[in-house]
């Protein structure tokens, strides 16, 4: 009679990325020698319906031939970035009649997948390049908010707009979401006027600041995200961080850096001759969301009423990315 397999123990997860991980566990020498397959029960932590089949002789979701441990588990079709998972394993021996002799299930271990790596963001950046239109000149960054916001800034913050934690809008795997602090600005202009749009989804008051205050030769520029919200138009998230700042140090190892003078999204060209002004350009056909990582004082610009309307339906606060869009998704997760 075939001797049973011991229950796998001491489950360890290592080398976790946004769409892969390695798993290993302790096995007896006897089990290591005779195991032919491993069964992996993988499920999202927020959906604890067991993936395990009720019958011990039927393999679970992931079936792999026995390999030396640690074993790599990868695949964007079932792993998503920044997601909590539960995993358990069985070892098995396939018998001559096709049935399996299996161990008991191991203990359940929890882990969380990681953010997009720089190479994934570069893939996303390549996608964004395909949507970016011609470069248009602009002269100011602007930020729309409600009167209550600016009253708070003046009364409680000494006139400083303080960096806030980036929300979870956009791609689920973006390294800046929920981790990087900043103040969001826009810079898109209208084709016919070259000025900021008259309408806004964020509030009836608009703070405007000369572009050179935020974007200059002492600024680092990074690509952070590309997404849509079930709409035809797309958003590109960029980060502006003063060189050597905490925000710059955070982004340097996590985000693709862009050349200030030659990229398809947002450019700064220094004056070529004495007396000339710098040139600032933004991409058309996409909506730029620019995150500046340092405090900005209201005295550096002006606050005025917008001339148009507040558009409640267009806000991107905590907006979820359309996972089915072929324009702005990459294969390593949503």
TrEMBL record:
SUPFAM superfamilies: Fibronectin type III. GO terms for cellular component: cytoplasm. Residues 112-334 form the Phytanoyl-CoA hydroxylase-interacting protein-like C-terminal domain. The keyword Glycoprotein applies. Keywords: Glycoprotein. The keyword Glycoprotein applies. This is Phytanoyl-CoA hydroxylase-interacting protein-like C-terminal domain-containing protein. It comes from the Eukaryota.
């Amino acid at each position: 009679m075939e001797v049973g397999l011991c229950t796998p123990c001491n489950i360890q997860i290592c080398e976790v990325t946004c769409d892969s991980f390695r798993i290993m566990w302790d096995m007896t020498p006897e089990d290591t020698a005779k195991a032919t397959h491993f069964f992996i029960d993988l499920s999202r932590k927020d959906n604890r319906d067991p993936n395990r089949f009720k019958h011990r002789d039927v393999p679970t979701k992931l079936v792999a031939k026995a390999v030396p441990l640690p074993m790599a588990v990868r695949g964007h079709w079932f792993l998503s970035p920044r997601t909590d998972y539960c995993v358990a394993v069985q070892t098995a021996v396939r018998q001559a009649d096709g049935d399996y002799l299996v161990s008991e299930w191991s203990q359940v271990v929890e882990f969380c997948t990681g953010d997009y790596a720089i190479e994934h963001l570069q893939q996303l950046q390549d996608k964004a390049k395909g949507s970016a239109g011609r470069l248009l000149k602009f002269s100011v960054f602007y930020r729309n908010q409600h009167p209550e916001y600016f009253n708070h800034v003046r009364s409680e913050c000494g006139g400083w707009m303080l960096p806030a934690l980036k929300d979870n809008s956009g791609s689920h795997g973006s390294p800046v979401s929920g981790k990087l602090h900043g103040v969001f600005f826009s810079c898109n202009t209208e084709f016919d006027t070259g000025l900021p749009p008259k309408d806004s989804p964020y509030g009836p008051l608009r703070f405007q600041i000369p572009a050179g205050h935020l974007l200059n030769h002492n600024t680092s520029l990074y690509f952070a995200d590309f997404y849509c919200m079930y709409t035809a138009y797309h958003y590109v998230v960029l980060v502006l961080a003063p060189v050597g700042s905490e925000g710059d140090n955070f982004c340097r190892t996590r985000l693709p850096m862009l050349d200030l003078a030659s990229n398809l999204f947002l450019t700064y060209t220094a004056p070529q001759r004495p007396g000339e002004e710098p040139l600032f350009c933004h991409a058309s056909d996409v909506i730029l969301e620019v995150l500046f990582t340092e405090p900005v004082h209201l005295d550096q610009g002006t606050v005025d009423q917008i001339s148009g309307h507040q558009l409640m339906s267009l806000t991107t606060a905590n907006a979820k990315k359309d996972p089915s869009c072929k324009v702005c998704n990459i294969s390593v997760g949503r």
